[in-house]
Amino acid sequence: MSITQNYKHIKDSLPDGCKLIAVSKTHPIEVIQEAYQSGIRVYGENKVQELTAKYEALPKDIEWHLIGHLQRNKVKFIAPFVSLIHSVDSLALLKEIDKEGAKNNRVIPVLLQIHIAEEETKFGLSFDEARDILNSEELNSLNHIIIKGLMGMATNTPDEAEVRLEFKKLKAFFDSLKSISQENVRMEELSMGMSGDYKIAAEEGSTMVRIGSAIFGQRNYATHE
Ligand SMILES: *Cc1c(COP(=O)(O)O)cnc(C)c1O
Quick check: 224 pLDDT over 80? Predict the structure, then answer.
């Protein structure tokens, strides 16, 4: 099947209100151009340099999401245009995004990345760490970010029950935060689900799935971080 057909097939299978982010990392500009022509407007990238290069080369009505780990010294490159940063995993990073948001005279939407998988290598906050950030005094003064929700990656395992359990826990945590009343916190988006597990994620309440290989085909080299 073509990229367009893959996209449409997945999109049609998602519940209402669950958005589809086409993860275009490692794929060249021409491939995204083709996808753009067929109407796909929201793309996810996991590396700042690649994201910035693609932003510069492609039409400006594309919504770019950063889904990979973000270093503080690289925030400035994406602050002018990024639509959503899925991978905020510290208060220090949040403050840096706020600073760059101010410089660019905009409010930058972000998600807190929560560690839900068994694997040690994946980035993310524990539930307690996330709650600490959301309740911190300092958050109040950050006027150029808005926390729109949470992101999580399940363990990469064929054990569907394990994956479902991890998504369920994240959804319960997400729901428990909806009562937070901070100006710059609005718990609306739950980014969970990739090519291998998006069906489970959608069933467990995901509002955003991030899908690469099931749309674009296998990547030539691993960029999993
Ligand atoms: C690469 C990546 C995806 C998409 O992975 P696929 O398995 O190709 O769908 C989703 N989320 C993050 C954070 C990624 O790095």
Answer: no
Q: How far is CA 34 from CA 26, 37, 123, in A?
A: 15, 5, 32
**CB within 6 Å of ligand 1 — which residues?**
23, 25, 46, 67-68, 153, 194-196, 210-214
| Residue 190: strand, helix, or coil | strand
The residue nearest atom 7 of ligand 1, judged by CA position, is 195
- pTM for the full predicted model: 0.96
Tell me the domain boundaries of the chain: 3-214
How does pLDDT run across 27-55, given as a tens digit for each residue?
999 999 999 999 999 999 999 999 999 99
Mutate to test the pocket of ligand 1, among 67, 157, 218 (most ligand atoms within 8 A of CB): 67
Class for domain 3-214, per CATH?
Answer: alpha beta
Nearest alpha carbon, ligand 1 atom 6: 212
